[in-house]
Amino acid sequence: MTASGTTASASETTEVVLEADGLTKHFPVRKRGREVLSKVTKVVRAVDDVSLSLRRGRVTALVGESGSGKSTVARLLAQLHERTAGDIKLHGESVSVKSGRKFRAYSRRVQMIFQDPFASLNPVHTVRYHLTRALKIHDRAGKSKQDLEKALADLLTRVQLTPPERYVDKFPHELSGGQRQRVAIARALGADPEALLADEPVSMLDVSIRLGVLNLLRDLKQRLNLAILYITHDIASARYFADETIVMYAGRVVEGGDSETVTQRPAHPYTRLLIDSAPDPDQIAAHKAKAGDRGTGEPPSLIKPPSGCRFHPRCPHVMDRCETELPPRFDIGDGDGHFAACWLFAREEG
Amino acid sequence: MSDAVLEVKNLDVDYGLGDDAVHAVRDVNLTLHRGEVLGLAGESGSGKSTLAYGLTRLLPPPGVIAGGEVVYHGENGETADIMRMTDDQLRAFRWAETAIVFQGAMNSLNPVHKISTQMTDVIKAHDPRSTPRSRLDRAREMLALVGISADRLEAYPHQLSGGMRQRVMIGMALALDPRIVIMDEPTTALDVVIQRQILGQLIELRERLGFSVLFITHDLSLLVEFSDRIAIMYGGRIVEEAPADEIYQDSLHPYSDGLLHSFPALRGPRRELTGIPGSPPDLRAMPTGCAFHPRCPKAFDPCAADLPLLGIPESHADATTNGQPRTVACWLHPIR
After folding, report:
1. CB–CB of B267 and A212 under 8 A?
2. Domain B4-97+178-265+274-288 falls in which CATH fold?
3. What is the pTM of this model?
C-alpha cells in the first residue's frame, strides 16, 4: 500500500481500492403454513448484479430510495453479510471473510460509518473508551500510555473536535448529534482504513450541521487519500459531495457516471423522476403548473420483482421490450463513464 | 388580507416546574390565516413540535403551558381560547376543527384494526347519530380523496406501504372537514418521490376544501416551495417570519440565511457551502441575549447582552407586498 501522491484528476489513473463485481444478495423469506413442505424458497432480491468501484481519493455516491438495496451493498462490501453471488475485490484480490482474524484484517482496511450516531455509540462508555478500543483492536495504540494519548488526540483533532482534552472523557449523551457522528468517524479512522463506507452519515443530523460533517469527510478524503462510498437518498448532496454518482432502483443499478453529468443530464427515467421530485425552491412557479403530471406508483416488491426492467410499471416511456428483457448498461456517451440501464439508449449502442 | 383562523399570543411552554423548568417555547406570536399554508421551520430542539402540541393542548407531562393564549376564530365569527376550554369542549374541538398529522404518522395507525374501523370510529365519536352506512361512505370518499382505491378499506395497516399509510392519515385528518390541519414533519420518513406526490395532493386538497395548514418541518427547501408564509424558530423563539419567496430571496436573520445555505442545490452552479458552525443550543443553558449569537457570523456588541424582539424592521417597513408585514428578531435590523 503506497500513498500515491497524484490527486484524482482522471479516473483511469487513480487506483481502485475496493471493487464489487456482479454483487448479488438474496435474503430468504421465512416459510409459513403449507410452504414449509414445499422445496421452493422465496427470496427477497435485495441486491442484484451491482458492480461498482471505489477509487483512492474519490467519493462515490450510491443514491436510491429506501428499500432500493443501497445499504445492503454497503454491508456486503463491509463483509457484514455473506453475498449470494458476485465478487468483492480489495486491490484486485477476491476477498471473502466471515469472522476471526481474516475479518479483522479486512476491517482494518475497510471501515464503515453508520447512519445513527445515537445508536452506534455505547451510551455507558466515554469517547476515550470507544476510540481506545478501535486503536487497540487494530494494533495502533502504541506501546506506552503516552503513545495512546497522542493517538487519541490525533484522532479527535482530525475530526475537528478540538481541543481534544475537552471531548475525550465525555459520554455520548453529553455530545450533540454532529459531535457524536464525528466521534463515530474518528473511530472508523482509528483503524487507518483505505476505504470508508458511509451509510447515510448525515441524514440523522440537523440540517445546519450536515454540511460541516460532509465537508469534514471531504477534507479527510483529500488528506488521507481515502476511497469513500457515500450512501444517501438525497441526490442534491451527492452532487455536492461526490465525484461519481450511481443510482439504484429496486436492487439494481440504473444509472451511473460523473456526479455533475448524472444530476444535470439524467438519462434514466427513474433518475429524472428522482431529480424532478427533489425540493427545489427555484422552481416554485414551474411546480404549481405541473402538479398533476408527477410520476405515480411505488417501488415494487422485491420478492416478486417486475420482469424485464424493474422500473417499467412506473416508467412514462415504457416500451414492449421493457416488460420482457432486462436492459444492460448502455453508454450515453456524453461524459466519461456515463451509463444507464435503459432500452431508450439501445439505439446509440448500434 | 384574509381573516385569521388561529392566533397564538405570547405562548410560553415549559417542561417541568419551578426553577428547573426548561423553557421550550418562549413568547411566540403567530397568526394562521384562512386557506394559507404556514410553514414552521427549525432544527431539532428549536421548539417547533412543542409549539404545535402546546397550541392544541396535546402536550404530555411534564410539558406545561406557562402562559399566553391561543384564540380560535370559528366559522361564524365566534372566538374561543383553546387554553381555557373544558375537557368536553376540547374533545369536540379536536379533529372537527383542528386535525393533526403526526411525525411518525405511519406508526400512528392501530395495527390490529382495519382501516375502515379506524376511519369510521372518528366519525362516530364526533357524530354519534350518523348511520354505519353513511360513515362507511364518508370513509370511502376520504380514501378516494387521497388517491387510495376503496378496496383498501378492509386492509390492515401492515398491508399498506408507508406512503399509503401516510395518505390514510391525511384522509383521516380531513374526515371531519377541519378548518386547520397541523402537520408535524408529515413526510420525513418517506422518499422524495412519494413526498412530492403527497404534498402535491395536499396542496390540491387545500385549494378544493379551503382549510389552513400549519406545516412543521426542518426541511426549509421544501417549505419555500410549498408554503405561503414561513416562520423560523430558533431556541424556542420565532426569529423571522415572512412570505416564503421573500425569505428565500432576501432573508434578514443570519440564522435563516445560514439554514438556506445549508442545502446543496440540485441546479445552477456548484458552490462551496459551509452550513452553520457550532451546534444547536442547549435549552437548559441558553446563551444570554440573542440565542443565536454564539454561532452567528455577524454577531456584535448588543447580541450577547440584550434579547432582540420580534418586530417589523425599519428597512422593510413599507415593503409589505401582500398585506402581511414581515418580522425579524435581530439587532442588525432595528425594529420600528
Report:
1. no
2. Rossmann fold (3.40.50)
3. 0.83
